[in-house]
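Hey team,

Filing this mostly as a record. A colleague (T.K.) asked me to run one chain through the structure pipeline before their review meeting, and I want the input and output archived in the tracker in case anyone asks later how it was produced. No errors, nothing strange. Just documentation.

Input sequence:
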Amino acid sequence: MMITLILLALLLAASGLYFALQVVQPKVYSVSETYRTEINCGRMTAAALEDWQPRDIWLDSPFGYSLYGLYLPVAGS
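Output structure:
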């Protein structure tokens, strides 16, 4: 019984640490890696991206860092 409680406590502590690290240190992908993934998956082509005439957007976060975005203007939307 005592071993079961200890194992359960260790499991809860390990899962809590795992999820805390997911929030504090999220995966970050570069813009070029994101483009490559979208093109490889067939959700976008390089020609379609160039046709959209994307614009880089930088926003200041209230927490002191810059957020990057890509604006893709679509006619009629």
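Quick notes for T.K.: Helices lie at 2-24, 31-40, 46-51. The chain has a mean pLDDT of 89.
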